[in-house]
C-alpha cells in the first residue's frame, strides 16, 4: 500500500499550483473545487445523471473506484477529446469508455484544451526547489488558463498583492501566448517554466519576466 499512497501524495504536491488557483477562484466566485459534471455540461443528459464521477476544477475528471476487487471501471466522458492521465492516450468523448483498473489506478482524465501547471514533487508545501513549474498543454482544442500566485504566507493578497499569469493556447496555430494579467501587482521576478505540449512535445524551458511572449510549437 505504501508505494500507492506515495504516488497519490506526490500527485497532490504536483497539483498544488492548480489547486491554489482553484482556491482563489472559489474565494472570488464561490465556485467549488469539486464539481458535479452537470455544472460544466448542463445540456448533456448523461453528465447530468452521472453521480459516480466528478470534475476537479474545470479540467480534470475523476472516476473513483469503490468496488472491492474491481478490474475495470465504466467512465462517462462528455463531448470533446480527453487524455488518460496515466498513459497520455487521447480518447474521443461523448460516450462511456471501459477503463482497466487495479488497486493503484484511479481513472483520471484531462479535457483537451486544458492548460495545467504542475510543480516538482515536494516533501512539504513550503520546501524550496530549483526545478521549474511545468505547464502542460493538452492539445486538441483552444485553451485559456490564469495561473494565480501570492506569497502563500500573509494576507497581502487581500490588498491586491498577487500575480496572475494568463496562458492562451491556439490549437490551429500551435501557439502559446503568455502575459501578465492586469490585476497583478507588483511585477513578478523572472521565473522559469517547462512548457510541454501533449501528446508529442518533449518540453521546452523558458524564462518569463512579465513581458508578453509567444511560443510556437511544430505541428
List descriptors.
single chain, 219 residues, alpha+beta, Immunoglobulin-like, 6-stranded antiparallel beta sheet, 4-stranded mixed beta sheet, 36% strand
Characterization of the model:
- It is built from 3 helices and 16 strands.
- It has helices spanning 2-14, 16-29, 45-49; strands at residues 34-35, 54-56, 60-62, 72-77, 81-84, 90-92, 95-100, 108-111, 115-118, 133-138, 143-149, 163-170, 175-180, 191-198, 204-208, 213-216.
- Strand 14 (191-198) and strand 15 form a beta hairpin.
- The radius of gyration is 18 Å and the shape is globular.
What share of residues are in beta strands?
Answer: 35-45%
The CATH architecture term of the largest domain is Sandwich
> How many domains make up the coordinates?
2
Q: Termini distance?
A: 42 Å
Would you tell me the overall average pLDDT? 95
Task: Briefly characterize the structure.
The protein has helices spanning 2-14, 16-29, 45-49, and strands at residues 34-35, 54-56, 60-62, 72-77, 81-84, 90-92, 95-100, 108-111, 115-118, 133-138, 143-149, 163-170, 175-180, 191-198, 204-208, 213-216. With 219 residues, it is α+β, with helices and mostly antiparallel strands. The protein has two domains: 32-111, Immunoglobulin-like; 115-216, Sandwich (Immunoglobulin-like).
Set down the secondary structure blueprint.
Elements (H helix, E strand, L loop, with lengths): L1 H13 L1 H14 L4 E2 L9 H5 L4 E3 L3 E3 L9 E6 L3 E4 L5 E3 L2 E6 L7 E4 L3 E4 L14 E6 L4 E7 L13 E8 L4 E6 L10 E8 L5 E5 L4 E4 L3
Parallel strand pairs: 10-14
Antiparallel strand pairs: 1-2, 2-3, 3-8, 4-7, 5-6, 5-8, 9-10, 11-12, 12-13, 13-16, 14-15
